[in-house]
Amino acid sequence: MPPNVLIVDDEPALNELFVIGLNNYGFKTEGVLGGQECLDLLSTQYRPDLILLDMMMEPMDGWETLTRLKQNDEIKDIPVIMQTGKNLTYREAELFSHCIEDYIMKPVTPKRCAPYIINTLDKVRSIEEIITQGLRAGYPEEKIRRLAQLYRTINVAKKLLFILEERYGNRNSLEDNETYGPEDYANFLLSLQLEYNELQKEIDYTLGNLKLT
Question: How far is CA 99 from CA 58, 79, 95, 117, 202, in A?
Fold first, then answer.
């Protein structure tokens, strides 16, 4: 059965482009024109395998949509890939790296997007299989799931760091009025890595062949 992908973009032409385009690449797609429509659809029994969420939308932007989605226990585990043409800030990268599976800078086409979706679904599936193996072996569920969450967050945070460094170098982003910059983000990443290492050592469990990159 093909993966079901929900496209959330308030531009009708782009929404239709991705619905049709990703259908042509073997996905089953549904499109909605904004954050509220996304949340309304998810309030029914509809459950996509992945959400492709645009950041620049009105009146509810992608960050607000993502925040509200993750606050709902029934839908918070649906994987989300953000896509945007907006410059990312270091503070945004820290705040939302734990909520998404990947981040794509526009302009982007369905052809370019398809591998991101496939890789994300493969990663999520692999992590869930490793969690299941750990639970069957008797490892504590709370700590196994925290280890997996740390892995996913570090993986995304490092990807976002690459995007930030490519755009800003070692400077603060011009849009970050709170002066949160590269040093703060480096400390955030370090704290995640230290917790991951300590927890992995404490429970003596590894995420199999998955490697932090």
Answer: 21, 8, 8, 16, 25
Q: Are 68 and 45 in contact (CB under 8 A)?
A: no
Q: Which residue has the tokens 């904004």?
A: 34
The number of angstroms, rounded, from the C-alpha of 143 to the middle of its chain's C-alpha atoms is 21
Output DSSP code: residue 172. P
Q: Give the strand order in the sheet containing 4-8.
A: 28-32, 4-8, 50-54, 80-84, 102-105
Is 19:31 a contact under the CB 8 Å cutoff?
yes
CA atoms within 13 Å, Cβ hemisphere of 206: 5
Residue in this structure with the two tokens 């790296």, named with its chain if needed:
97
Residue 206 CB contacts under 8 Å (≥ 6 apart), including other chains: 200
Cα three-residue angle 185-113-115, rounded to 5 degrees = 90
pLDDT of residue 213: 43
Q: Which amino acid is at 166?
A: E
pLDDT along the chain (213 residues), means of 10: 95 96 96 97 96 95 95 96 89 93 92 95 92 91 93 94 83 62 94 95 77 45
pTM across the whole model: 0.90
Q: Is 48 exposed, middle or buried (0-12, 13-18, 19+ CB in 10 A)?
A: buried
DSSP 3: P
DSSP strand pairing (4-8 vs 28-32): parallel
Give me the residues paired with residue 103 across strands.
Answer: 82
